């Protein structure tokens, strides 16, 4: 029986802080059996992961999936390069965008969708330090506004 819905395995929390997200794609991942078993245990790290386009194929590099604890000699290597499965049209679009300028492919999250492992891949542009500071200031201001509105609704005042 297949699983329904979406079960998140790992997320790249720093990606949205370090990059401006331009476009998001969903890609399948070509895995071996012990990798899937290890992912079902919820073990994976997208911290150093990135994607590249080589010879018309998209590859996910730096993804860490630890070895399956009950695996034998057939276990996988934890940081091997894995192929991402996308439509040809999407790959051609990504090739054009990454060659065009300062854009890169960053994985945002990895999850099970109806029993299959998927990666949410973002076409992104790196942020400068001042952009990051502006985002932090904006978030802080929004947080203060919602706090003050909450106080007013409850009838409290400073």
From TrEMBL:
Keywords attached to this entry: Cytoplasm, RNA-binding
**Superkingdom, according to UniProt?**
Bacteria
Annotated region Disordered: where?
A: 132-158
Which PROSITE patterns does the annotation name? SSRP
BP terms from Gene Ontology: trans-translation; trans-translation-dependent protein tagging
Provide the GO MF annotations for this entry: RNA binding
Q: Which InterPro entries match?
A: SmpB (IPR023620), SsrA-bd_prot (IPR000037), SsrA-bd_prot_CS (IPR020081)
The UniProt entry's GO CC annotations, sorted and at most eight, read: cytosol
Which spans does this entry mark as compositional bias, Basic and acidic residues?
A: 132-151
Where is it localised? Cytoplasm
Q: Does the keyword RNA-binding apply?
A: yes
The UniProt entry's coiled-coil ranges are none
A Pfam family cross-referenced in the UniProt record is SmpB
**Family per similarity comment:** Belongs to the SmpB family.
Q: Which HAMAP family match?
A: SmpB
Q: What does this protein do?
A: Required for rescue of stalled ribosomes mediated by trans-translation. Binds to transfer-messenger RNA (tmRNA), required for stable association of tmRNA with ribosomes. tmRNA and SmpB together mimic tRNA shape, replacing the anticodon stem-loop with SmpB. tmRNA is encoded by the ssrA gene; the 2 termini fold to resemble tRNA(Ala) and it encodes a 'tag peptide', a short internal open reading frame. During trans-translation Ala-aminoacylated tmRNA acts like a tRNA, entering the A-site of stalled ribosomes, displacing the stalled mRNA.
Name it.
SsrA-binding protein
């Amino acid at each position: 029986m297949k699983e329904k819905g979406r079960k998140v395995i790992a997320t790249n929390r720093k990606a949205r802080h370090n990059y401006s997200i331009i476009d998001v794609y969903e890609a399948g991942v070509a895995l071996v059996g012990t990798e899937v078993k290890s992912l079902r245990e919820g073990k994976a790290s997208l911290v150093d992961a990135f994607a590249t386009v080589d010879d018309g194929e998209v590859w996910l590099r730096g993804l860490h999936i630890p070895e399956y604890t009950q695996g034998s000699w057939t276990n996988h290597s934890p940081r091997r390069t894995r192929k991402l499965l996308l439509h040809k049209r999407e790959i051609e679009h990504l090739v054009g965008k990454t060659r065009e300028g300062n854009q890169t492919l960053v994985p945002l999250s990895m999850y099970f969708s109806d029993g299959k492992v998927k990666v949410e891949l973002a076409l992104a542009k790196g942020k400068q330090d001042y952009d990051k500071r502006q985002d932090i200031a904006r978030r802080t201001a929004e947080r203060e506004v919602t706090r003050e509105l909450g106080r007013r609704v409850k009838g409290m005042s400073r």
